[in-house]
Write a structure and sequence with these properties.
Elements lengths: L4 E7 L5 H11 L5 E4 L4 E6 L18 E5 L7
Antiparallel strand pairs: 1-3, 1-4, 2-3
């Protein structure tokens, strides 16, 4: 596991959420977690740090956002 976790989020273009999810499932690392919201946003939490890469622009309502996180050691 990498010390960087990638969180990727995109809002699907109208009527394209199923296609976006299919694309994300193929592009994401098999260990990544994929989530969908009620308003057709797709979020990926990828602890490998690999991320998603490019997504076909017709599948998204706007450019995806990506954030990199570093785990914080907990004392409890």
């Amino acid at each position: 596991m990498s010390s960087r976790t990638v969180m990727w989020e995109a809002k699907a273009a109208p009527g394209r959420v199923a296609e976006l999810i299919t694309h994300v499932e193929r592009a994401a690392d098999p260990a990544a977690d994929v989530y969908r919201s009620a308003d057709d946003r797709v979020v990926v939490i990828d602890r490998t740090g690999r991320g998603i890469g490019d997504v076909p622009p017709e599948l998204v309502a706007r450019a995806p956002h990506t954030w990199k996180f570093t785990p914080v050691p907990r004392s409890v």
